[in-house]
Amino acid sequence: MKAVSLVSAGLDSLLAARIIQNEGIKIIPLFFKTPFNPKDKLDKQLEIIYQNLRIKPEVVSIEEDFLEILKKPCYGFGQNMNPCIDCKILMFTKAKALMSNFGAEFVITGEVLGQRPMSQNRQALKTIEKKSGLKGLVLRPLSAKLLPPALPENKGWIKKENLFAFYGRSRKPQLGLAKQLRINNYLTPAGGCLLTDPGFAKRLKELILHQELSLDNIELLKVGRHFRIFKDTKLIVGRNEKENNIILDLVRKDDHLFSPSQGIRGPVALGRGSFNEGLIELSCRIICRYFDLDSKTKGRVVYKRVLDKKEKIKEVTPIDEDTLLTLRI
Ligand code: SF4
């Protein structure tokens, strides 16, 4: 008997998968890659899943589909920009499509009834199952005793008494079970989806408002200080060396790049959108604000459009704080 198991590297999904493994069912862990997994954590997440379940997870990309959901989620957003019900319907639908490839009979999730007000109440669980075509096929081992029986219980493959009745937001029961099952390597709930981060959500909302939603632009949202300097023009300034390097990796041919001239310490900045002389001057003044100028009042900025070979230099005064604040996203 086989089942696909929706796993992140969070405790709940790992517990759910392990409980069912212990019932003698072979599981196929599915890890869904959205544009909002923190990029630097992806390898770590996959490693954690492998360490706990001893099976390499299948990575399923839902990045492109996710962009469509974000534009107008049928079931709305949660507290920030997280369209959890639509996101789960998408994941469950993909899981259903993959079941036959793996010869799986049902789906396992780590959902806990009442844990999240939007997506883990009885009605939401029902809706997600129905809309994804998985009605009766989803087993939620952590709350199964509180829910109608799913296929593996009805068929007698798994006994309800071996499952749990966890409810609500407390993490205590899960922590106790983790000890029992010797699961001690997992990510905290906050380490997951960036859509639940208020700062990130604010920048994403601004991006959608300007109709600039794309995978490239979402990657950029994950680094730096963001400024809207004109209706279709943004400047992103690195906050440290690591971010400077990421920004340089994400640069496109039609972007502009700004950096301190020789002898000055400071970040790099990426300009995306249309630029004229005025916007170049403004960008130079913004990046200059983050230069280490000692006691000097002006800084020299090197800039160029990435496509162009020739670099230019502008000497500018740093922008004042009040103006800077009006441009910051
Ligand atoms: S928190 Fe993010 S990944 Fe999780 S269900 Fe919500 S939108 Fe999807």
What can you see in these coordinates?
This protein has about 325 residues and is an alpha/beta fold. It folds into 2 domains: about 1-195, HUPs (Rossmann fold, 3-Layer(aba) Sandwich), CATH 3.40.50; about 225-325, no CATH class. Helices cover about 40% and strands about 15% of the residues. The protein has 12 helices and 11 strands. It has helices spanning about 10-20, 40-55, 65-70, 85-100, 120-130, 150-155, 170-180, 200-210, 215-220, 240-250, 275-290, 320-325; strands at about 1-5, 25-35, 60, 105-110, 140, 225-230, 235, 255-260, 270-275, 300-305, 310-315. Strand 10 (about 300-305) and strand 11 form a beta hairpin. The chain is elongated and about 75 Å long. The mean pLDDT is about 95. Bound molecules: iron/sulfur cluster (SF4).
Structural class: alpha/beta
Low-confidence stretches: none
Q: How many beta strands in the DSSP annotation?
A: 11
Shape: elongated
Determine the N-to-C terminus distance.
Answer: 51 Å
Regarding quaternary structure, what we see is single chain
- The CATH topology of the largest domain is what? Rossmann fold
Bound molecules: iron/sulfur cluster
User: Strands of the biggest beta sheet: in what spatial order?
Assistant: 6-7-9-8-10-11
The appropriate CATH architecture of the largest domain is 3-Layer(aba) Sandwich
